[in-house]
Design a protein that fits this description.
The chain is of the alpha/beta class. The chain contains 8 helices and 8 strands; from the N terminus they run E-H-E-H-H-H-E-H-E-H-E-E-E-H-E-H.
Length: 213
């Protein structure tokens, strides 16, 4: 079973990915992780990726696709895999389809975890971190006993710069502009599996496993 996992920042995609890996015994393939691994190994594609990264350029789609192709041919992907964070755009999805066709393979399901923007803003702007010990809290889901004070060490809790409303809203807009065309692309192939991402973690997981089975 070959799966793509889509979801905006704050949708709980990371949590669901970990549970899916355990449930189906398939590897989670994050393009960030495999790019770093290819660079570390010094493979030809890794060297090409490093040259781009060193210049501060985006790694070309052709290189990313090549690295994904190398990764999915490894033995642990024999039963399937879950792509996380890739593809991000329609051209990447088209290139992925072409590459998989050459391998006589395909994507089976595209799981899209869907949460309203207002809910996501609440989730992402509610995070607080202790300045002293680094422990995390959430004003909605895991509030400290005393507002602004760490339960563990008494340190001051603060909101990270990238968790303010303006930054979060901007991140969600970028996700929507990149990913909505991708959802339409896979919808046309009959592969999109929309999941309501609001509720208890286990409830959401049950919804995902139901569509995958």
């Amino acid at each position: 079973m070959n799966v793509i996992l889509l979801g905006p920042p704050g949708a709980g995609k990371g949590t669901q990915a970990k549970m899916l890996v355990e449930e189906y015994q398939i590897p989670q393939i994050s393009t960030g992780d495999i790019l770093r691994a290819a660079v570390k190994e010094g493979s030809p594609l890794g060297k090409e990726a490093k040259a781009c990264m060193d210049k501060g350029d985006l790694v070309p789609d052709s290189v990313v696709i090549g690295i994904v192709e190398e990764r999915i041919q490894q033995p642990d992907c024999a039963k399937g895999y879950m792509l996380d964070g890739f593809p991000r755009t329609v051209p990447q999805a088209e290139a992925l389809d072409g590459m998989l066709q050459n391998l006589s393979s395909q994507i089976d399901h595209v799981v899209s975890i869907e949460v309203a923007s207002e809910e996501l803003v609440g989730r992402l702007t509610g995070r607080r971190t202790c300045r002293d010990c680094g422990v995390g809290f959430h004003v909605m889901f895991d509030p400290p006993e005393q507002e602004g004070v760490c339960d563990k060490c008494g340190g001051e809790l603060y909101q990270r710069d990238d968790d303010n409303v303006e930054t979060v809203t901007s991140r969600l807009e970028v996700y929507e502009s990149q990913t909505l065309p991708l959802i339409d692309y896979y919808k046309a192939q009959g592969k999109i599996r929309p999941i309501d991402g609001v509720g208890d973690i286990k409830e959401i997981f049950a919804r995902v496993t139901q569509v995958l089975s």
